[in-house]
Batch of 4 targets.
Target 1
Amino acid sequence: MSSFMDTKIEFLKGVGPAKARLLNEELSIQTYHDLIHYFPFRYEDRSQFHTIDQIGPDSENVQIKGVLDRVEVVGGARKQRLTAVFRDPTGQIELIWFKGVKWMKSKLKLGIPYIVYGKPSLFQTKFSISHPEIEIMTPANEVGKKTMLPVYSTTEKLKRKFVDSKAIAKLQLELISTRGFSVVEIVDKAVLNEMNLVDLTTALRNIHFPTDALVKNKALERLKFDELFFIQLKIFREKSDQKEVHKGIIFQKSHLVHEFYEKHIPFELTGSQKQVIKEIYSDLQSGYQMNRLLQGDVGSGKTITAFVCMLIAIGSGFQTTIMAPTEILAIQHYQGLSEYCDKLGLTIRLITGSTKKSDRKKYLDELVSGEMNILVGTHALIENDVQFNRLGLAVIDEQHRFGVAQRAKLWQKNKHVYPHVLVMTATPIPRTLAMTLYGDLEVSTIRELPKGRKPIKTSHLYDSSRLKLFGFIQREIDLGRQVYIVYPLIEESSTLDYKDLMDGYESISRAFPKVPLSILHGRMKAKDKDFEMDRFVRGEAKIMVATTVIEVGVNVPNASVMVIENAERFGLSQLHQLRGRVGRGADQSYCILMTKKKISKEARARIGCMVATTDGFEIAEKDLELRGPGDLMGTQQSGLLDLKVADLTTDGVLLKRARLLAERIIADDPELTSPAHARMSRHLNKNQIATLKWSAIS
Ligand code: ADP
Ligand code: MG
C-alpha cells in the first residue's frame, strides 16, 4: 500500500526535479516521509526575551529589548567596523557590524526601542553581539513571536543553490499544509494513553513548528519514545524465541584452572575478577550458549579473567580464540598469554595480517587438527580458511571497534554448535544503557582495580605554562620513562585539527631536539602506523605524538606521562580512556590536561572531574549528568544504533519505561498477534529496526 508519505519529493510544490535531485544527493531526502523526518537540530526561540544582565559566557542566542546609545564607525579604512551601545534597564552590550557598515549606520536610530537577536560572545571582559538581527519594536513583536523557528542543517552545496535552513522550513510548512497530509500511526492507542504521548501526526507537525518549548518537548518525547520502544520490542521478541535455538556446550570443572591458580598465577585475583569468573562459569554449564559482555575499567584485569575462562573450555577439550581490534593489541595478548601457556603446556598461536604465509599455513593445520589450544589474532582470524577443530569459547576484546558482520562470522567458526562468546569493553556504561546497546547480552562488571595501583596524578595546566610542562617531560625522560602527547582529531577529515597536530609535532621536535619521537595519526598507512607504534612499544621512541588513535588498549607500562592538548575538546569518557594508557607500570604516572585559559563551564566541569577522580564508573555517571539534553552529538554508542533524536545518556528514564512496557507486551503477546498491538506489529514487520545483534547470525 502506497501512502501519502511515499510520494516523491519532486511533487511537492516548490521542489521540482532539479531540487529533488539535490535534496536526495545531499540529505538523502527522496520522499515526503524523508522530508518530514528531517528534523531541525535547534530552534530560535523568539517567544522569550532576555535582559542584558542574564547574559553569561554560556549564553546561546538571546533576544533583548532596548535602545541604542551611541553608534560609531571605528577602525581605519581597511578594518572599518560599526559599533553601537545597546542598553536596557539592566545593563549594556556592544553590537558590532563588520560588513555593510555604511548602510547599517544610515538605518540605526538613537533613542527608539529595538529588538535585538543574536549570540553574545565574550571579548576580554565585555560581551558583544556581532551582526545581530535588529528590528524596531512594534506592538506586534513586542510580546514576542508566537513560534519557535526551526533551524535545519544544510550543506555548502545546498546553500549555494539557495536551499538554506529557511528554505527547508518553507518546504516543511508546504508539506504540512498540503491537502491530504496524513501520517500512518505506528503505536497503538492503549500505549499512547498509558505513556501519555501525543499522536504521530501531531508530533511530526510540532517538531517542525512548535508554538513553545513545552509543545516541542512533547513532540520530541513521542519521537524519542518510538526510537527506543521499537528497539526494545524487537529485542524482546527475538529473545523470546532464541533461548531454545542456541543450545550451548557444557564445560566440566577443569584441572587446568586449578593448576593455574595453585602454581602459576602471578598475583591474587581481585574479588571482582573472581565474581565475574563465577558468573561466566555458571553460563558455561547452563546448557545455553553464553553471550556475555564483560565491562571493566582500563587496567582492571580483564585479560586474565578471560584467560581463566578459556582454561575452563580448554580443560573440556575445546579450543578458544581471542580477537583484538589492532595488531599491536593482538601481539600484546599473545606475548602476555604465551608466558602462562608455556607453563601449562598449552599451544598458543598468533595470526594477523602480517603473519608469514608459511607460518599461517602451519598454524591453520594445527588449528584444524585440534593441536592448537588458543588462537590470538586480529580480524584476520575470521577469514574463511581459518577453521577450528572444536571452538568452544570466543573472546572479543574492545568489541566496539569491530563491526557486527565481523563478529557474526566468528560465531560460525564452530559448525556443530555456536561457541560461547565473551565480549570485553573498557567503556563503562550504566546498566540500562548496556541492556539497550547489547540487547541480547548478559552483563558482568569488574568493579575494583588490582591492589597496590598508584592512582594517576592528574593536573590541569594552561597553555601559558608550556615551559613548565616541557621541563617536566624532560625530567621524566631522563628517568627513563616515556610520554604520550595527544591532540584532538575529532573528525578524521578536519584539516584544521590535522594542522594542530603537525604544528605540535614540530614544536616538540624543536623543544626536544635529542629525543627520538614517534608520530601516529589516522591518515597514515597501516604499515607506517605499526612501525611508529612499534618504535614506541620497544622504547626506542621516548615521546609519542598522536591523535586519539591510541585510545584503545595499548599497553606500554614504561609510559608514565599522558599529556592531552586542547583537553577542553574531549568528552569525559575519552579523556578517561586516554589517561588509562599510563599508570600501567610500577612508576608513579601523570596525566596533564592542557587548555587555554578561557573554556566553557562544561569543559571546566569535565576537567575538574578528571582531576578529582580516577574511577571510571564515577566518571561515567558524571558524564551522564553533565551532558545536557542539548547535546546533539549523542554518544558514540547511539551512533551504532542509528538513533536520530533519542540520546542514551540523557533519556535513561524514558528508555526504562519503554523497556518495561516492551517487556510486558511481549510477555503477554509474544507474536504480537492481538488486535490491540496491530499497529506496532505492522510497523515492526515492515521496517528495519536497527538493533545490535551481537549474538545471532542474521
Ligand atoms: P584491562 O582490563 O585494561 O584489559 P589488563 O588485563 O591489561 O587490563 O590488566 C592490566 C594489568 O594488570 C596487567 O599487567 C595484568 O597482568 C595486571 N593484573 C590483572 N589482574 C591483576 C590482579 N588481580 N592483581 C595484580 N595485577 C593484576
Ligand atoms: Mg585490555
Target 2
Amino acid sequence: MLMRLDRFLCLCDPTLTRKTSKKLFSDGSVRVNGEPVRDAARKIDTDQDKVTVGAKELVYRQYRYFLLNKPAGVLSASRDRKVKTVVDLVQGIGDDFFPVGRLDKDTEGLLLITNDGALAHEILSPRKHVPKTYIALCRGTIDEKAIASLQNGIDLGDFTSAPAKAVVLAGEGEDTTIALTITEGKFHQVKRMVVAVGSEVLTLRRVRMGGLWLPPNMNSGSCVERDGEELKKILFQDGYEDDEERFLRRYL
Ligand code: URA
C-alpha cells in the first residue's frame, strides 16, 4: 500500500506527536531502505520499503489486537472524553480502537481491544456460538439443582438461556465459586442466570473466549498484544482442556 511517510510513522507509533515526528525527520533519524529521508510527505510502499527510526524498524499492521485483563471499575467502551475506558488502558493506540463486546463496569477479566471491526463482528455473532467462561463468586450455596438449571437453560423472561456448562469450583464458606460457560452474550446474562437460581453474583471475572484463555498470572489492568492470524485460529476453537476443572481452579 502506498502511504505518506509521516502517516506511516504515526500508525506504527501512535504515541508520536506532530512535533516529535517533525523532529525525527529534521534530524535525519527516519530512514527508508537505509537512506535518511527528511521529506515527511514522501510516499512509501508499506509492503516493500524498510523504514527505520534510529535502530528500530517500523512494521505496519493495519489491524492490531490486545488482550486486556480488565479491572473492575473501568467502562467497556471506546475512548470517551469524560470517563476512563478500557481503551485508555492500552498504551499508544488511536481513537479507532474499541472493545469486542462489553463487560459490566464491575466485571473483570478477558477483553479484546482491536480496530478490526470484521473480526469483532464475527466473534460477537450469535451464529458463531463462541463460548465464554466466567468465574462467579455467588452468595450462599449453589446446589446440584441450581447447577442443573444453569446447565439446562433458564427462562429469564425475555429469553431462555441456551444450554450452558456450570461447575462448582469452591464452596466451603458461606459463598460458592462457580465456573459458567455460556455461548450467548445477552445483557447481564450471567448475573441474571445466577439470580434466577436464587443467588446473586458478588464478583465476576471472564477467563475465556473460544480457545483464548486469560493467562492466570496476568496482572489486573495489564495488556498484551496478540498476533491476528493466531488469534483468529484459536478464538473459534472450543478451547476445552482435557482436565478443565483443574485448569479452571488456577483462577481461584
Ligand atoms: N454477564 C454479566 O452478567 N455481566 C458481564 O459483565 C458479562 C456477562
Target 3
Amino acid sequence: MKGFIDVVVGLQWGDEGKGKNIDALLASGDYSGVARFNGGANAGHTIKLGDKTFVGHLVPSGGLQENIELFIGNGVVVDPVSLTKEIFELKGLGFDVSERLYISNRAKLVSYTHPLLDAAEEHYKSKGGKSVGTTLRGIGPAYADSRARRILTVGDILAADFEEKEKELSQYHANLLLMYKDKYGFEMPAGAEEKKKEWLDAVEKLKKLKILDVSALIRERLQIGKNILAEAAQGAMLDVDHGDYPNVTSSNSLPANASLGLGVPHTYLRNIYGVIKAYTTKVGGGAFPSRIRDEVLEKAFQDAGGEYGSTTGRRRMVGWLDIFALRYAIALSGVNKIFLNKADICIGEKVKVVTGYKSGNKVLKEFPLHLKDVTETITEEMPGWGEKNYGVTEKSKVSPELLKYINYIIDMLADLDVKIIAVGTGREREHTIAWDK
Ligand code: IMP
C-alpha cells in the first residue's frame, strides 16, 4: 500500500464549513486529488480564493486549485444540469476543470423527473405534517431508484440503448406523478418541458466529459504513492442509517462510506478529519434539541454567521454547540482530528453548550432513536467573546473567553482520542489558528 486516503466529514447537520478546510488541506500539497463519495447536488461546499467564491454542489472542493484532480465516485447521484452549470461557472472564474474532472461511470444519474418526485413526496408528507424539508434536488427519489435497481448510471448515457432506458424510467416516473396528482392533489410545477430540454442538453455536455471507472483510477493513483482526500457531503447527523431518521438525507455521510462510495478498500483510509462549527445549525424538518429559543438571538447568529443555505438559500436554524450529539457523531465516525470553524462568531454576553438530553425525568445515556423524544437539554453556560476573535491567526492572541470555551470542548471530548487541530476565525483561508499538532 503506497498512498492513502484521508476523509473529511461533517460532525453536525451539514454546513460546518467543510469547503474551507478541504481547500486548506489540498493547499498543503499532501494530496493529488479530492473525491466526492456520497450525496448529490444537495450539498453546497463554499470555497474562497482571494476575491473569488465558488459553491460546489457536485464538483469536489478542489476546483480552484489547478494541480488537483477531481473525482466523482460511484456513490454519488449526479445531476447533469447542476454539474455542467458548475463547470461553466468555474470556467468563468478562470478554471477549466474539464481535463482534471473524472466522473464515475457507475455513479447514478439524477433525471429531470427526480426533483419533481422529490416535490411530490414532500407535498404528500406535508399533509401529515411530516415533510423532511429536503433541498428538492431529487436526492431521495434518486437513491430510492438506485436501491430499486431502476435508475440510470452515468455510464448509460454513452450506451446505444440510453434513449430507450430513459424513456422507460420517465414513463415510470410519470405514472408516479399522476398518482401523486390524483390521490394527493400534487400540482406539477410549470416549466416541466423546459426542464426536460435543459436536462437533455446537459446530458449531451456530460457525454464530452471524462466518464470512466473512477474506482480503478483512484486505486491506480494510490498504487503510485499519491494521496487522495475524500470529502463527504452533509454531516454525520444526516446519515441515512445513523441520523435522526427520517429527518436525514438518503445517503451515508459517515467516513466509512468513503471506501464503498469510491470503491477503495477501507484499509487505505488514514486520517478522519471531523468538522464542526462553534455552534450548531440545521435546515429542514425534525427536532433540533440545542436550538436557541430566543428569536432575536438566533437571527443575530444567522446574520453574523451567514447562516442561510448555500444550495437553497433557506435560513438555517441555529443552536448551541451540542456536545452530546457531537460525541455520538465522533463515536460513529472514528474521527481523530477536528477542525473547529466559525469560532469568531459569538453573540451575547453568555454562550451555552448542550452536554446532555433528558426525556421526561430520565437523563439519556445513549443517543436517542428519535430526537423528538428529547424534552429538555442539560446545558453549561460560559462567558461570550463578542467579535474579539475575528481574523485572529495566533493562539496567543485568542481572547480568554474563547480559550476557555475551546479548552472546555477539549475536556468534554478527552476520552475520545480526538484533538482539535485548527480553529477558524473568519472566511478567508488564512483566518485560521493552528491548534494542536
Ligand atoms: P435531501 O438530502 O435534499 O433529501 O434533504 C434531506 C435533509 O437533509 C433535509 O433536512 C435537508 O435540509 C438536509 N440536507 C441535505 N443536504 C444538506 C446540506 O448539504 N447541508 C445541510 N442540510 C442538508
Target 4
Amino acid sequence: MRNIAILCSGGDVSGMNPAIKHFVEYALQKGLTPYFVYNGYEGLIENNIHEATYSDVAGIINRGGTKIGSARSERFLSERYRSVAYYNLKLLDIDMLIVLGGDGSFRGLDVFSKEHDIKFCGIPATIDNDINQSEYSLGVDTALNIIKNAIDAIRDTASSFGRAFVIETMGRECGYLALTSYLTSGAELCLIPEKHYTLDEYEAKFKQAMQDGRNYFIAIVAEGIRQDSADIVKWFEKKVGIESRLTVLGHIQRGGNPSVYDRLMAYKFIHHAIDALLDGDSNKVICYTKSGFQNKSINDVVSKTKELDQELLSYLEA
Ligand code: F6P
C-alpha cells in the first residue's frame, strides 16, 4: 500500500474539513493509506503525523476550521528544518503529500520540493482568493456569504439610524473580497488596493445624495488599502456630514459552516489532487480556471502575484 498525507497551512478556511473528509474517503477507495499531518509544516518538523481512518472524519463536513490544525511555520523557512520534515516523511514511507494553503504555503512547498524528492499537490485554500493562476480558492464562497450576512445586518442599523458604515474586509493585498461584496450588497463605496482613489473625488456625489434624501451609506473597504479605515469614518463625518461607524469584520470571515459550494469544491479539489498524484502528474497546484480544473506547475503559480479579475474591476470603474 502506498502512503499519502495531507496538511493545512496558513490561515484556516471553511472547506478544509470537507476536504480532509473526502481525502480520507477517496484515498482509501484508491487503496492508499491516508495520513494526517497536524498543524501544518510544524507537524512535519515535529513528526506529528498519524494514520487516518473513516472515524476520524465522521461529523466534520459541516464544521469550519480544520480538524488537523493549521499554522504559519517560521521554522519551515529554514533549510535545516525542511530536512527534518523530509526525514519524517521518509520514516513513515509517505511519498505523496497534499497541501491545502495559500501563497506563502506554496512558496515553502516550492523550495521544499527543489531540495527533496517529494511528490506533492497543492490545493488553493485562502479566503483572500489571491492564488495566481486559480480563479477560485477554497473558503472564498463561505467568507463572502459571511460578509454578505454582516453587511445585510449592518444595513438595518445604518438605514434605521441614518448613519454611514465603513465595513472593513480581510484579503491582505487583494481586494477580491471587498469588491465582490460591494457588487453584491448594493453598497455605495468600495475602496481596494488595486484601484487608486482620493476621497475628495466622492465628496460631491455623497453630499448630493444626502440633499436628495439619502440618509445612510455603506462603504466596503479592503484591509489592504493604504489608509486607515478609521480615517474614512472621519471623512464621512467631517466632509460628507453624516454620523459614521466602523465595523472591522476580522476573523469571523474565516470561520463558520462551509457553504455548499465550498463543500463541493473541496470534494473536486481533492479528487483532482489524488488523481494527479496517482497519474504521476505531481508537484502541481490544482487550479480552478475559466475552463475547469488545471494542474499548474508550482513555479508558475508562485512566480507572479495574482491580478484581480479584470471584469470585476471594470464594474468598479464603470
Ligand atoms: O490570509 C488569510 C488572512 O485571513 C488574511 O485575509 C488576513 O490578513 C490574515 O490572514 C490574518 O492573519 P492572522 O490570522 O494571522 O491574524
